[in-house]
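ok posting inputs for the flavin-adenine dinucleotide job
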Amino acid sequence: MTKQAIVVGGGPVGCVLSVLLARRGWQVEVYERRPDLRLAEHAAGRSINLVLTARGLRALEILGLKDQVLEITVPVYGRMMHALDGALAYQPYGKDDRERNYSVSRGDLNRYLLDVAEKSGVKVHFEQVASEVDVRAGRLVVTGPDGAARTLETPHLFGADGAPSAVRGGMQAVEGFRESLDMLPDGYKELLFPETPEGNYCMEVRALHIWPRGRHFLMGLPNQGGSFTGTLYLPLEGEESFATLTHPEAVRAFFGRHYPDAVPLLGDYVEAFLESPTGHLGTVRCAPWHVGERTLLVGDASHGIVPFFGQGLNSGFEDCAVLHGLLEAETPLAELFATFSQRRKPNTDAIADMALENYVEMRDKVGDPRFLLRKQVESRLERAYPELFRSRYAMVVYSSIPYAQAQAAGRIHDEILGELCAGIERAEDADLERGRELIDAKLTPFHAAHGISLAF
Ligand SMILES: Cc1cc2nc3c(=O)[nH]c(=O)nc-3n(C[C@H](O)[C@H](O)[C@H](O)COP(=O)(O)OP(=O)(O)OC[C@H]3O[C@@H](n4cnc5c(N)ncnc54)[C@H](O)[C@@H]3O)c2cc1C
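and the output
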């Protein structure tokens, strides 16, 4: 019998999941709140971009979509730090240029994935808002643009409807269901660094640019075609905050004071800043993620995280890769949903924590000399013993080592690097032989116990 499913949410995770199911012969219908992004009248608007890394790419590779997606990305190879005096400092991401990240427009990626979903036989219904979800019965109400509501029933319901998920809302009725939503006191606004009049990039295109300024920071990621999308992360309230930057003079003074080298590159940013909506950031955790074989949450709907490790979408795509593996093994569905949740939840909790740690790192520590020293010693260790030591960043971004294991290995790295950096001022003075002893004593046994291979 053909399996049937409704997927709520036609964002990137909903699309990849639908393709995965449709290619296995499922009959899939997607209900998406927004209009079709591919239609010209909806194509304009904000250019939001994000970074794809190994985990996300692996899921796309399973579906044979990786090469096409890479064609709409811009590779970035490291971080370029902008000091207040305009000095630049570059840190490569990985051990060589093969370890790189890919900047992609969220809209372009979503448009491409919607095409693939439809070509795979998925029926996508746009401008349909799901509500009143009965997760045990597989029943939901969808409301169209004319306000007409219909009740739908399905044997299998997937909630891929992002952090404010209506399907997760329906899970409240399940006994023992718990959820938390922890909002950050900071929000974000997106700004454009336009291409130069000659049509070139206004900054080094191979890098993600960061202006760390303590309580706030600006970030820039390249788009195809010459521009960068900038994102300002700033407190929502307080003296210097989105609450006070509400008129042109305040905005100009703020950028002049903190981001003087970015101002000439930002074009007509003041008006754009005032018009651009302020985004909010938070961490969603919940359990359970499923009800029998009826309902399953995936992506941000079950584990929305803050964006500071660039892993929100990557972890949602990794959900799809794990589901693919379980479907291949022909695991019965109720067991499959349970195994999936057990396998993923500790890992998505780990990346949620690491993303919050990176929030402090990116706004504050990337300009701190002790932090930079630690990073340099870490990179010396990586180069000296590449088969024995890889940074936590590399494990998260370039491998498929479960996030929880990367997090636990990172705690051991902290002990090792803490000892190696104590009492030194220059990375060259770190005692690498002692580093090797510490790796052998503390880290290698951990890798062996968890079957971790650093050959990635
Ligand atoms: C500023 C910022 C930067 C980021 N950078 C990165 C990055 O560099 N790398 C990375 O991996 N991740 C990044 N992320 C996270 C990433 O955007 C999310 O993890 C990803 O979009 C989640 O995909 P999703 O499909 O699960 O949810 P969403 O993208 O939120 O899609 C959910 C879809 O469901 C639809 N929907 C919602 N409610 C309903 C409803 N009731 N009925 C019908 N449809 C509904 C929505 O319209 C939407 O299309 C970033 C996030 C932010 C905010």
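notes: The longest strand covers residues 178-193. The mean pLDDT is 95.
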